[in-house]
Amino acid sequence: MPAAKKGLAKGKVEESSLLDQLVGAVSAQKAAFCCGGEVQVSNNEENLLSRFENLTYDDGKATSASIVLRWDLPSGKTVRKLALPPSEAADGAAVIEGLLKHCTPATFGKAGEEVLDESYRKAAKLDAHQFSTNFNPHDVGIVDAISQILLPGVAKPFVDGKSTFEDNLSVAAELYKLNIYSGPSGKFRAHVDTPRGAKQFGSLVICLPYPHEGGQLCVAHQGLETVFDWGRKEANKIQWAAFYSDCEHEVLEVKSGHRLTPTYNLYVRERLGGVMRQNTSVNLKQYALSNKIIDALKAPDFMTKGGVLGFYCQHAYAHTNDNHRNRLPYALKGIDAVFYSTFYHLGLDVEVRPVMKGMPDEEDRKLRKQLQGAELVGAKLHGVILSDAGGCEDEGSATMIVKSKWLSEWYKGIVWFNEPGPRELAMVHMAYGNEPSLEWHYSSAAILVKVPASGSELRDKVTKG
Predict the structure, then answer these.
(1) Which listed residue, of 102, 206, 229, 366, carries a Cα 20 to 30 Å from 308's Cα?
(2) Fe2OG dioxygenase domain spans which residues (predicted)?
């Protein structure tokens, strides 16, 4: 047992261990390299306009109409189609057999050449100009999710510093191929994709709702691995995964059925929009953080009396600028978006608040003792405070001036996952001295999560899902 844990009660040791695991899960997720989720296929065949009219930021879940896949015959004179999910398994199988007859074996790139080797890759494919589908990943929020989670890790090289800013960039998904991996031997051994252009940064794989077993997609990056298991899923759900081009990935052997996957190339482009929805298509349970949170909250000795978890935002946001602060939390990016949304969708109380670090040493010993271990947290996100206080000796210390003017409160015992990130100017006031001067104070945007006490109704609700 580490020296720091010697002498601790059993419950405290367990709590400390769980906190270490949570910190480890966040540290391992410094930059998201892949994401994925699912979209429900609606049985209600309404037109597109009515589906979008019912979808807002806080109400209405993104759904997809039944999928129709059309492809050309070699003659070019007639077209065949497949409806998914199939109404009858036998009918679907017969149509897919017809589809496979018009596909060609899938090749892969090796040393600048296209190679056909079924011991390495066994699949059938159609190129983008040979088929079409009514499914569009932009329509159901998939591309918005990719923009929030994957784009921050690659945006900076595309920013020219004059006409383009990181916040103005978004993602375009271009249909590339239809790949079909069939049981009992369809597979694609571990490989890394070759980017098709300077602005391509990743790939998107859509798994259409057709039953199959096996065919898991394994994505690995810098010692971490995520497995997307789309076999044996409900027939009325579309599964998806997106990942960076430099990620090694593999399609494990399909044991039975057919794994139908349209693939898209992902490109950086000018932003058209993106929000953090209450009903999201992202499956947050795929992240280690989500599972560790549930495990910790189930433990009766973890933060028994409740408490506050804190995570300093790793990306810069103009959180003290009146024109930008109202965009939070919707403008969160990368790991910040993952952290916030994980707790938010569990139903916990989570907020983005400004935190002021590095206050001057307090000369009043009594006050210094009272404030030991306390954090000065803004009551809400607000603009820069300009005050004329501080010009006289009897107006108190800088600490008390800031506390009285900066719309804030003291927090004790916040459990922080990381160190403060980018800072913004928060307050300016006068300073008493031989000559007139100004005191400048800065704050960092932080995500604060209130952990309910053991046995509380909210904690029981979160752990029981």
Answers:
(1) 366
(2) 164-270
Query: How far apart, in whole angstroms, are the C-alpha atoms of residue 406 and residue 422?
Result: 19
Name the packing angle between helices 10-28 and 288-298 (round to 10°).
Answer: 170
pLDDT band for 116, please (50, 70, 90 cuts): confident
Q: How far apart are CA 208 and CA 236, in angstroms?
A: 9
Instruction: Give the three-state DSSP class for 179.
Output: strand
The answer to whether 318 and 40 have CB atoms below 8 angstroms apart is no
Sequence-separated (6 or more) residues with CB below 8 Å from residue 49: none
- Model's pTM, two decimal places? 0.68
Angle, CA 463 vertex, CA 460 and CA 465 arms, to 5°: 105
Res 22: pLDDT = 84
At 380 the three-state DSSP class reads: coil
Q: What does the pLDDT look like over 29-65, one tens digit per residue?
A: 656 889 999 998 876 655 445 555 555 555 556 788 8
> 450 to each of 343, 344, 381, 422, how far by Cα in Å?
10, 11, 17, 23
In this structure, are residues 37 and 281 in contact, taking their beta carbons and an 8 Å threshold?
A: yes
Cα–Cα distances (Å) from 328 to 314, 340, 418, in that order, read 14, 11, 20
Query: At a CB cut-off of 8 Å and minimum separation 6, what does 373 contact?
Result: 412, 413
Q: For residue 35, give the 3-state DSSP assignment.
A: strand
Alpha helices in 363-429 (DSSP H): 365-370, 398-405
Whose CA is closest to 200, among 139, 263, 245?
245
DSSP 3-state of 340: helix
Q: For the chain, give the percent of residues with pLDDT over 70.
A: 79
The token duo for 152 is 């921050």
pLDDT-based confidence at residue 199 (cuts at 50, 70, 90) = confident
Q: Where are the beta strands (DSSP E) in 135-253?
A: 169-182, 187-191, 200-207, 212-214, 217-221, 224-228, 237-244, 248-251
CA angle 392, 393, 398 (to 5 degrees): 90
Q: What are the helix (H) ranges across 279-364?
A: 288-298, 334-345
Length of the chain: 465
pLDDT tens per residue, range 127-144: 999 999 999 999 888 998
Amino acid present at 165: F
Q: Calculate the CA 333 to chain-centre distance.
A: 8
